[in-house]
Structure formats: structure tokens, C-alpha cells
Design brief:
Chains A, B: This is XRE family transcriptional regulator. Chains A, B: It comes from Aliishimia ponticola. Chains A, B: Pfam families: HTH_3. The structure is a homodimer. Chain A has about 70 residues and is mostly helical. The first copy, chain A, has five helices and no strands. The radius of gyration of chain A is 11 Å and the shape is globular.
Amino acid sequence: MKNEQLIKQLGLEVRRRRLDSGLSQEEFAEISGLHRTYVSGIERGDRNPTIDIVFQIAQALRCSPADLFGGDEE
Amino acid sequence: MKNEQLIKQLGLEVRRRRLDSGLSQEEFAEISGLHRTYVSGIERGDRNPTIDIVFQIAQALRCSPADLFGGDEE
């Protein structure tokens, strides 16, 4: 799978888990310490975050970094 | 776990899988399309790569991105 597709897939997973947590983008931005527009860009697959940001997102979603890459579907 | 520890853990996992594949850092750098010193920095946990680089590394190691974050140990 191409990198762009993987980045889009990550964004969809972040969005899915955020919604499952009942959080708006504003609430999630506050919890994760990221700007709302950055969260929106990640969910659309328009950003290429560094892994420390991915760790920050996983922590805010109370999951492991591996979970964000489909790690729990294996 | 703090981000620095997670980044160090990722580096150790990349190193472990590279050695398991019988690849030197030079060979792995060539396969992954990254510079050898960058590979060395990632393995030491001194770099904060963007996720597209992490995908590139996973592809070169023939594993999933989740595997690099301990995804296959669950």
C-alpha cells in the first residue's frame, strides 16, 4: 500500500476512535494538546505527522500507537 | 510511557528486525531509500521521523507499521 493511502488510513482510524470516544475535534484537540485544524488535517490524511505527535494522539485516545495502524485487527 | 521512551523502543525494534533480516545498516539504508546515518539515528532513538518514513522502514523490513510499535506482541 502506498504511503498516501497509509496516511489516509491512519486519519480514518484517528477519526473513528475519536468519535467512538464521543469527542468533538475541539475537545480532542484540547486533550491531545494539538491545534484543532491540525487534528482536522490528520483525520483527512493531509498531514504527515512525526511519530511523537502520533504517540500524543494515541495517548489522548487511550490506545497504543500500534492500534492506530490497525495493530489490534491482527 | 514518555514519547522519548517510545521513540527509543521504535529504534530498538527497527534494529532487531534489521538484524533478524541479516541486513547491515548500509544494506538496509539502500533498500529503504534512507541515508545510513539517518537509519543509525533512528535505531538510537535520536530521530523523530514522520510517519511516511516509518511506513518506508516497515516496507523495507517486510512488516506492517503496527509491528514496529509492538503491534504483533498483543
